[in-house]
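Risk mitigation, structural track. In case the binding assays with pyridoxal-5'-phosphate fail to produce interpretable data, a predicted complex structure has been prepared as a fallback.
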Amino acid sequence: MTTSDTAVERLQDICARVLAATREAGRPAGSVELVAVSKTFEAHEIRPVLEAGQRVFGENRVQEAMAKWPALRDSYPDIELHLIGPLQSNKAAEAVALFDVIETVDREKIAAALAKEMARQNRRPRLFVQVDIGEEAQKAGIAPNEAVAFVQHCRDGHGLSIEGLMCIPPVDEAPGPFFALLQTIAGEAGVEKLSMGMSGDFERAIPFGATSVRVGSAIFGTRPRPA
Ligand SMILES: *Cc1c(COP(=O)(O)O)cnc(C)c1O
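Fallback model:
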């Protein structure tokens, strides 16, 4: 990545690489969606990417997303916004109101809070369960061996329909086995979607069935401050 590259040029490059990896994996073109992760970037940095046609974005903080996206949505009503960061139950109302997809359902308390808010607001964001695929103490997510039961509990206990699973593999290990494990768990849980793969490893996630990849710095550049 050189400094003369723009976010739009990088977006086009990433789209081409997603398509190439999809074909290489023998999967149909268009079967992997790109979630452009815009956390820490400001509206004026996001607009060119919207103008270039990207509509699906990821943010990791409810507060930050609330400050940026309502105005952008006024200009681009067909934006699809994903929450990819940990959700606190006291932010469930805001999250349900703003996001189209919440990828970080990871515990009973959040499932209960989302169910309550979705009923109250009569709004149904699509939901993913986050799995702590490397069983790392510092990472959010349900443990791999509890994930199938948790998905079932979200359905049967809270009436939530879970569309897929999401994971962030450990940073310093080869990601393939973790992507493979998430794919296996999704099969056991009977969910179709897999959100996995980021700037450094999205091409590795696609052969393991990723249906969306979350790419931030490879599009927007190095983040100005820690996310
Ligand atoms: C920040 C973030 C990403 C994007 O990371 P990059 O390495 O910049 O592509 C993806 N997923 C989650 C959950 C994130 O927090």
